[in-house]
Amino acid sequence: MAGTADDEAGDLLAAFDAVVRAEKGLVGQLSARAGIHETGMRALTLVNDTGYSTATELAGYLGLTSGAVTNMVDRLADAGLVERRPNPSDRRGSLIVLSPAGEAVVTGTRERYATVLREVSTTMGVDLTNVFNEVATGLLQQSAREQRD
């Protein structure tokens, strides 16, 4: 007997929630291994993806106050994972860049994710890149609609 649309939606949401929880758990483990908080790991990833970041950009991405970001960046700098450099477009601010140690943390983290995702992609015979891009696009579009409403 075929499931109802509500059953299918419930199954989809349960599966999505399981992915989100599993990813959060993995970030927690990898962050602990690196000796940093999960938020710090997410900050390192953003800085890696953009090449550099400002405290304001990190605050927006992470949903933190400027004071919380300053404290987090201080801890990451003290751990040797990021460096502050002068911001040529804002003399009062600084650019946050990864140090070689920070790059190593992000590279190791991404390698672990890539291994899992390649295995799942191969096992399922599905290009997860396209699936994730479509999910991200759909979520961003819904977020934009929510913001307008």
Quick gist of this model?
The chain contains six helices and two strands; from the N terminus they run ααααββαα.
Can you give a write-up of this model?
With 149 residues, the chain is mainly α. The chain has one domain: Winged helix-like DNA-binding domain superfamily/Winged helix DNA-binding domain (Arc Repressor Mutant, subunit A, Orthogonal Bundle). The chain is built from six helices and two strands; from the N terminus they run ααααββαα. The protein has a two-stranded antiparallel ribbon. Helix 1 crosses helix 2 (38-50), helix 2 packs across helix 5 (100-124) and helix 3 (55-62) crosses helix 4. The mean pLDDT is 93.
Which runs of at least 5 residues are low in confidence (pLDDT < 50)? none
Total DSSP E strands? 2
Name the CATH superfamily assignment.
Winged helix-like DNA-binding domain superfamily/Winged helix DNA-binding domain
* Count of individual helical segments: 6
Query: What class, by secondary structure content?
Result: mainly alpha
Domain unit count: 1
Give the strand line-up of the largest sheet: 1-2
The coarse overall form would be: globular
How far from one another are the termini? Answer: 38 Å
Q: Please give the radius of gyration in angstroms.
A: 19 Å
Reported by name, the CATH topology is Arc Repressor Mutant, subunit A
